[in-house]
C-alpha cells in the first residue's frame, strides 16, 4: 500500500509519520493471542487435531491439547485451562484472534470474554 501511495505522490497522513505499523504491533503485542487448529497424522494412521495458541509478545506457543474429534465441550475446556494458565502467568492478553474454521464450535471461546476486568474479545463474534 505504501508503495502505491508513494508512486502516486501521495504522502501519508501527518499523524502516521511518527508511528510505524511495526511500532503499533509491538505496542499491542502484550494484549494479543492467536489460536488455530493444526492437523497431524499419527504413526498408526489416525488423524488428530491439535489446538495451539501463540502469545504475540513472547512468541510462546502453547499446545492446548489434541483430539481426533474437537467438540464444543472439548474446546471450551481447553479455553478455560488457557485462561487459568494466563492468569497464573500474569498475562495482560485481551484479544484472541481466530479464524472461522468449522472446528471452532459456536461460542466455545465465551469464557475468554468473561475474564472479569481482563476480558478477551474473540475476533469472530458468536451467533446465539
Explain this structure to me?
- With 128 residues, the protein is α/β, with parallel strands linked by helices.
- Helix content is 25%, strand content 25%.
- It is built from three helices and five strands, in the order H-H-E-E-E-H-E-E.
- A five-stranded mixed β-sheet has the order 3-2-1-4-5, with helices on one face.
- Strand 1 (32-41) and strand 2 (47-55) form a beta hairpin.
- The relative contact order is 0.14.
List keywords for this structure.
128 residues; alpha/beta; five-stranded mixed beta sheet; 3 helices; 25% strand; elongated
Describe what is shown at a glance.
This protein has helices at residues 2-7, 21-28, 72-89, and strands spanning 32-41, 47-55, 60-67, 95-97, 121-122. The protein has 128 residues and is an alpha/beta fold.
Strand content: 25-35%
Global structural class: alpha/beta
Proportion in helices: 25-40%
String of helices and strands = HHEEEHEE
